[in-house]
């Protein structure tokens, strides 16, 4: 399978008061109806107008509560204290669209495999094959305490559990063969029991009998996303993921990551060109270059409170930074004690090219526009910058994060997407009905359940 000449565009959202950019709620034109279903439907329609591959929602299972062992700063500064249940949010988006892929984050640490398998299989059936699961292992002790545990599992154990979890989910999705439903009303036969299979899985972490209570879906199985950035995370993504979501802060880092990840995919016996690698990026688009740069300055300097950044960094790394000063250096000793997402630190160090890494800089890479590359300018200039990354094989497309809702995605769709289409690197219409058809992925053969 050759590398596609069409890039993928994925919208990265939170069912929250903010986007991943923690100052988004303060931007003057941002809407504040994020507790209304029409808010999410409006965004979904805009993305489908722009023929985006997919909208997917990030999630955490707790408020940021690691910094100072308190949720106060998250609540006070709006650092993602609101997190709606994604099942309901995806349902309302599904009702407003016909082609757009719909994805959500679900944890392999705090949900059972059967629940996750049934959730996404149901969504896939109801949307005629448009669902995707973003596989995460969760990150911090605050989430553990909401599920009756004192501390979060260690890094390697989380991935050991996730390996077995995803294997079980995939086999549950395949526990019904295609054509199992007979629907013989006269003969009274609904389905062929010879084509519906129990798993009888007995593993280290799970015992699951099966079969799933949802037949095999139109696209065979929902699409799998994964965002592991550590060595273990990259191997997990290489084995399972069909879309790999990365956090590379510069093109040089992204090119290196792209090559490494594609090599790992090949080592697992998979076709590297059948897996799309998509770094997160921001776009700041204006009617003129000067307007775009003026907007960029607002996003960089005026909207994110430092305490919001620290609350979100502590959440991500599962480490309480309240005993540190903002200008304290990030040492190897400190990083060795962190149980959260280690790949963030490694990526920021590469981006800063040997400069001393301080807590202030690291926190800014979690909550501000420093978190990912940003493309700034007119729609034509932003399209050119995105095309340059794509041509350099730094990516197969982008996960676009919003600086504010809904205007950030409206700007991309109406000012940048037309230029990407003129360049021949992005579609003008959907090629089929399922998400796999949109991505150019084959319908997977059924695993022997």
From TrEMBL:
Superkingdom, taxonomy of origin: Bacteria
Keyword list, A-Z: Flavoprotein, FMN, Monooxygenase, Oxidoreductase
Membrane-spanning segments: none
Domain Luciferase-like: 32-392
Family: Belongs to the NtaA/SnaA/DszA monooxygenase family.
Protein name, as recorded: LLM class flavin-dependent oxidoreductase
Organism placement in taxonomy: Bacteria, Bacillati, Actinomycetota, Actinomycetes, Pseudonocardiales
